[in-house]
Amino acid sequence: MIVMKFxxxxxxxxxxxxxxISLIRNELxxxxxxxxxxxxxTTDMLLRASQQALMGTVSIKEIETLHYGIIDELGLD
Length: 77
Hints:
Layout: E1 3-8, H1 14-26, E2 33-39, H2 42-54, H3 61-73
Parallel strand pairs: 1-2
């Protein structure tokens, strides 16, 4: 078995996610275990949102924009 971890800049766009998929497919004979963490910049965005929440207001628009952009780039609904 092989463990493959992807996150940050390696999953920051549809193109980069497709690259990860290619790497995973190459390792399928080894039954890879896949670990995926946040897209690039998501952690920083979540920290900013938590700071805003402490001040009584919060917007997740920035996070939504990033994720919907990746979904669109991948051609998903």
